[in-house]
Write a structure and sequence with these properties.
α2 packs parallel to α4. Helix content is 27%, strand content 31%. The strands form two sheets. A seven-stranded mixed β-sheet has the order 7-6-5-8-9-11-10, sandwiched between helices. It is built from seven helices and eleven strands. A hairpin with a 2-residue loop joins β2 and β3.
Length: 230
């Protein structure tokens, strides 16, 4: 997810509003940018995708050297910056995207967000999973070399209450189980969290670290990184 909504003089224009299984989702345009709002909470916009791209780049860089065609699970689709970055990198193999909101998928397939994700969605490596990420991690038998997770404004600020289970001991254990040996977990957050870093260590991850991206509002966006040991 991206920086908080900018407080500029442009008024947002609502392009679509839907009631989904987890509440209301809204697509708005503000000037040249698009915004996604969920249950009245700003999630992301298209003004600056640096931290979403870092989510993908840092995960790939953290993988063991020489791993061929690593697979990645991106959760969720958002405005498409993370997916576009993954598809632009030929080293990735399978690219799976977990997105529970049908409206967001439609905005990419048929709406204005296709300008960001169109080429990535047409890539044969890419597949959209119409699933709740948390449920998927607990039920699938698939394993991935990287999990790049961006479904909240961070471990301390979730979009819906049930998302908090992702950052619990059970949720982090599920993440670890879904990773191949040497695989990497990357989690986007609107602010650093020392408590979450410790939770990752407690869950058995190694190499826990945080990478920051400076943003205009002062507090950096971050990507938390952790490895499943070989």
């Amino acid at each position: 997810m991206s920086d908080f909504a900018r407080t500029d003089v442009l008024s947002p224009v609502t392009l679509d509003r839907r009631e989904g299984p987890h509440g209301e989702v809204v697509l708005r345009r503000r000037g040249d940018d698009f915004e996604i709002i969920a249950n009245g909470c700003f999630l992301m916009d298209t003004s600056d995708g640096r931290s979403e791209r870092l989510l993908i780049d840092a995960a790939l860089a953290a993988l063991p050297a020489g791993r061929r065609a690593p697979s990645v699970l991106i959760g969720g689709l958002g405005v498409g910056f993370s997916l576009a970055r993954a598809a632009a990198e030929p080293r990735w193999g399978r690219i799976a995207v977990a997105e529970r909101e049908r409206a967001i998928v439609d905005w990419h397939l048929e709406g204005p967000l296709s300008a960001i994700s169109g080429a990535a969605l047409a890539d044969p490596r890419t597949g959209i999973l119409a699933v709740d990420l948390v449920d998927h991690l607990h039920t699938t038998t698939d394993r991935y070399d990287a999990l790049c997770l961006d479904i909240d404004n961070g471990p301390d600020w979730t979009v819906t209450e049930d998302n908090s289970t992702l950052y619990s001991p059970a949720g982090l254990a599920a993440c670890r189980e879904r990773l191949t040996p040497g695989g990497v977990l990357a989690v986007w957050s609107a602010q650093p969290s020392a408590d979450f870093e410790q939770a990752l260590r407690n869950a058995g991850f190694t190499g826990v670290r945080t990478e920051e991206v400076s943003v205009a509002r002062g507090v950096p966006d971050v990507v938390h990184l952790a490895l499943r040991t070989l």
